[in-house]
Amino acid sequence: MRTTRRLPLIRHGFALLLVGALITACGEQVEPTTDAPNDVVDEAPADAEGDTEAEEEASDETTVDDPEPESSTEEGVTDDNDAATDTGTIEVTIDGRELTVTNASGEVVFTETLAKDADDAFQDVFHAIAIRPGATATELDAIVATTRGEVARLHHLRVRAGTEVALEAIPEHLQPQDVMESSIVLGWTPDGDSVLWTEPTSDQPVLRTFGWDDGPGTGRQADDNASFALDLPMDVFVDGFTVGDDGSWTLLLTDGLGTTHELPMERQADGALAL
Asked: Could you tell me the strand order of the sheet in which 249-254 lies?
């Protein structure tokens, strides 16, 4: 039996609930590298089946409830809606330039509004949220992506005790490299110890990752800022993980035609990821 969790894509003006562990893979040829590329990231296709599915399920609020037993719609497959709503009451909402955090008591505890340019030429907007697996009604970590024109930037949203909230930029060396499109699809490994996304380069797409610990970033070469060259279509994006009964992971990547590519992934003894 395999449990499937999909990584939602949250677009401008929406917040999608991202809870639980996301991401794994199955067997294409890959070549791990240690340095992040300095090339571009294509927009995750809006008409891809994985994208369409995530957008249809997206709501204006991301909710994190106290954990309850998983339910499933069929043997071995977790219902995405149940997986999302079973884990909490912290709500994270994005709407254009504004991000709002509401705690379990319904109290708005944090609001961040991005600055607006006087000439309206380029505006920073909140683009996506990926919540770390293990979030509760009082504690949450998430990666929040903002976009400005063609550039994507990542931030760490931290909520503690339901009321203590901070939003901080991810260190520069862990940021996407020269992103040329306004879409980036973020995900987490099932253990919640690494963040993942894809970026195209002049030769092939790469899978970018960085480790978490109490993060962002571990400071260790083995699992901090690693990337993997992928022998796949240039427009693939992270679309989920399957987790086997034996704990094995399979990363799901979807391309612009809606084809899903499976890549086996594992966490090695030193904390590094391997495909």
From this structure: 3-5, 237-243, 249-254, 260-267, 273-274
> Do 196 and 223 touch, CB atoms closer than 8 A?
no
As a whole number, the mean pLDDT across the chain is 74
At 11, give phi and psi (nearest 5°).
Answer: -95, 175
For the record, the structure tokens of 99 come out as 């991000």
Q: Nearest CA to 237 among 3, 1, 2, 10? A: 10
Could you give the 3-state DSSP secondary structure of residue 88? coil
Q: What is the pLDDT of residue 216?
A: 79
Task: Give percent of the chain above pLDDT 70.
Answer: 64
Q: What is the pTM of this model?
A: 0.67
Q: Which residues pair with 30 in a beta bridge?
A: 230
**Close Cβ partners of 107 (under 8 Å, ≥ 6 residues apart):** 163
Asked if residues 225 and 257 have their Cβ atoms less than 8 Å apart, the reply is: no
> How far apart, in Å, are the Cα atoms of 121 and each of 64, 124, 196, 275?
36, 10, 30, 42
Residue 81 has pLDDT above 80, yes or no: no
- Distances, alpha carbon 12 to alpha carbons 15, 19, 55, 96, 129, in Å: 8, 19, 11, 6, 10
Contact between residue 198 and residue 40 where contact means Cβ atoms under 8 Å apart: no
Name the maximum alpha-carbon separation found in the chain: 56
CA 156 centroid distance within chain: 12
Return the structure tokens found at 164: 């203590």
